[in-house]
Each structure stands twice: as C-alpha cells, then as structure tokens.
C-alpha cells in the first residue's frame, strides 16, 4: 500500500520535490479498521513534505494554498506541506505534524537526505508550549463528539454510526488519544505515535464505551495534562534561531540533491 504513482506525477510535492512522505492517522496509530468492517470510517491517511525549486522562494510563486495542498482520491486522504509551512507548524507544537517526526520506521514511505536531516533534529521542536496545542485539539474533538447538527464533513457510514451510538465515536477516540499523547510528551519528551493502547482506542471507535465513560476519562486526562504541563522539564518553547537554521539547512540539502546551484 503506497501513494498511487499517478498522484506522484501529477503533484511534484509527492514526487520530485518530496523530501519525506509517510502514513499518518489511524495507520500510524495502529487503530486502522479495514473498510470491510461495518464500523470502519477510516481513510488511508498520508502526509508529505516538499521543497519546491528556488523560484518559489526567490520569486513570486506560491505553493498551494498558503503552503499546503490537500488531495482526496478514493480512500486516500493526503496532505502536502511546503517545508517552511511545515517548520512553522512544528514550531507551534501542532500535534498532527509533530507526529510525522516520531513514526515507526515502516510507516515512512520515502525519506531523502533532507528529510532525514529533519528527523534527526526532531528534538529542537520540543517544548512545554505543546500543551496548549494538544489541549486545543482535544477540546475541538470533544465539541465535535456531540455536535450532531454539523455533520457535513462526514460520510453516510459515519453519520449512521453517530446516530447508532448517540455520539461521534471517532472523535471520542481522537480525544482520548490526543490527551494521552500530550501527557506522555510533556512527561518524557518523546511522542509515542504507535499506540500501546490501540485496542482500547479501537474499542472506543467501535462504540464499546458509553458517552459518559468517554467524558469521565477525558475530564480526568485534562487534569492530568495540566499537572504534566506544570511539572514538565521541557524548555518553554523551541529556540527560534536553531529552528530557522535547520529550515535553511534542509532547503539547501534538498536543492543540492537535485543539482541546483546555491
């Protein structure tokens, strides 16, 4: 299972400009439920990082929409980030992109020397500031979990599951996972993307937890996360100059790989 070749030809960010691509979402977490299951609402999620040619940095060309291109094709859900956009999201502590640096080796589909440079320096993005990002995303999932009047982003299968269980079990699973991952990161400075609690998270997605149980567990985890933030030994936030230099080094490395004169 890899990104279709026709997409790599159509989108240079997945092909010649790509420095890193990998699975994300349920595949990366070990919580993927195959589509043959009546309780499955999972896509094949992937993320890529690219370094476009110099004219995108020295001229007026823009990459995608503010440095981002999103692709949905059949059961594939792919997002491509231009490197500067990616670095800024990493610096902000965005959970969805931080996970890209902490995957299992077999979940990376492509890693160039420039991509490896990013992975080798993942610790420069560590900081207590991630608390607000993880909590913000968790709160958003908690709200979506019960907003039955705003289901436009869902497929018919997911809508039926919401009606069956009385809440969005997929959002509930995301809620619990995000809080646990945030706590672990604040405590250890490491991100455990492949989940040791995957069977439990799958059980939540399949409606085996009541809404009351989800709320009770999340309320407990919000309190634990606050304590983890207060006690964390991580720096307050990443060092701007260090991150900026890393971004420059990655771009130069990618251009050198492709034979551009610097």
The level-1 CATH class of the largest domain: Alpha Beta
CATH architecture of the largest domain, by name, is 2-Layer Sandwich
Query: Rounded to an integer, what's the Rg over CA atoms?
Result: 19 Å
Say what the CATH topology of the largest domain is.
Beta Polymerase, domain 2
The number of distinct structural domains comes to 2
| Estimated helix fraction | 40-55%
Mean pLDDT: 93
Termini separation: 36 Å
How do the strands and helices of this protein lay out in sequence?
Elements: H1 5-10, E1 18-23, H2 25-29, E2 44-50, H3 55-58, E3 68-73, E4 76-82, H4 83-92, H5 95-98, E5 108-111, H6 113-120, H7 130-146, H8 156-165, H9 169-188, H10 198-205, H11 211-231, H12 240-257
Parallel strand pairs: 2-4
Antiparallel strand pairs: 1-2, 1-5, 3-4
Helix pairs in contact: 4-12, 6-12, 7-9, 9-10, 9-11
At a glance:
This protein has 262 residues and is of the alpha+beta class.
Notes on the structure:
This protein is of the alpha+beta class and 262 residues long. It has two domains: 7-122 and 239-257, 2-Layer Sandwich (Beta Polymerase, domain 2); 130-231. The protein contains twelve helices and five strands. Strands 3-4-2-1-5 form a five-stranded mixed β-sheet. The model has no long low-confidence stretch (mean pLDDT 93).
